[in-house]
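Notebook entry, structure prediction.
Reason for the run: the old model in the group folder had no record of what sequence produced it. Starting over properly, with the input documented here first.
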Amino acid sequence: MKFEQYINASRIIDIRSTSFDGALRELALACNLESGISIEKVISAVQEHERTVTTCIGNGVVAVPHTRLNANIPLTLAFGRCRNGLSLNTFDEYRDVRYVMLMLSSNNEKAYLSTLTDIVHTLQNSAIVDSFDRAHSLDDFKEKVLSIFVSQKRKVQKEEENANEFFLEETSKLARAAMCSTVLIFGGSKLEGIDFQKIFDDLKIIITAPKHAEFDTFSANVHFISPLLAPNSIHWLYEFRSTVLLGLSQDIIKYDEKVCCLGSNSHDGTLDTLFIIDIRQEFCTIFSSETQILTKNIKPEVLERVLSIASEISMEGREGRPVGCLFVIGDVEKIKEFSKPLVLNPFFGYGENERNILSPFMDETVKEFSTIDGAFIIRGDGVIESAGTLINAPEHNVVMPSGFGTRHAAAASISWAAECIAIVVSESTHRVTLFQNGQMLPVVKKG
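New structure, fully documented this time:
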């Protein structure tokens, strides 16, 4: 995500107010909105949203208030620091808030949710927040913010560069010999500064790395997929299937390709492992057709977000305990034919924006309700219709591996009966398994 079109140095400020409302006013003024847009209406809209869902995130020191306005304005960001904390009526958590990013846009801004997600994921990184804390002057703070949110080159150690470049050059030769058209690289900061286009030339390059990572290569031949597990994890082999699946759903990877995958099994992130997969053979069971990995009504970003949340649940559990849960994504009207509520729907009565899985503020809510028996029912555009829903689809004749129980059987049946996608988190094995057309595909395994 390129943030330079949304934020600049003039909209990075020191907040003088100690109240949340005062901080909003200073940030809104820094946005330098058109004269026809009332600052009071902006503040009122943000406050109304804040009363519905708190925007305090991560480690409790950052808030990202945001709203859409009935006005023709581009997506705009303003960022401020308030070293003495803030107060917001009865919300004690805001007393620790030291950084506030205000995000405003028009109602029809298509990049609203995706930008908000990128911002939240970036600011949840404690190392990034710590770097803000080390900025003493306002100029230092501006420079640090822009270095994080605006693309700039970063230096890497020469010896790390050389080791990885040598491995990549040898990979390029092997990929061509094996008739691969795509190279999939699992990595993070250790890959920054490498000229991938020069090494791989006409081969398609896919890099699995955090969205805030910065690379020197920007080309139509280079694509990025955010990892479901931590970057540079030595357990990257456990998630290569989910990464390829996301590539297929986004039409980055094609059904008839061979993909050369490489990553690191060492703690220092140096590339040292390589294997080749044939997409047709590896994923043939779950394709709706030879060209379609997803049903038509499911957005790729929705699948990505559900897989990400399911992976986090499988790794973390809830309150120290393992959790099993089921997500069903697709045509809600078809799914309703084979389901019924087990409990009162906790998402009933909320606006579609507030209960869209693409909103980063839904992550904790979904994790909290994951402990309820039953499934989450999610529309293809990401709107959560219900939780705690009983799946009662006709039994589908699929052979389950040992240890798979009723939740997996329900997922297989509903994916076949309602032509949807079902994703299961296993409470006992911590694995994440995707079902489509009644067929299963393990995508994440706890390392």
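Summary: Residues 158-177 form the longest helix (20 residues).
The old model has been moved to the deprecated folder.
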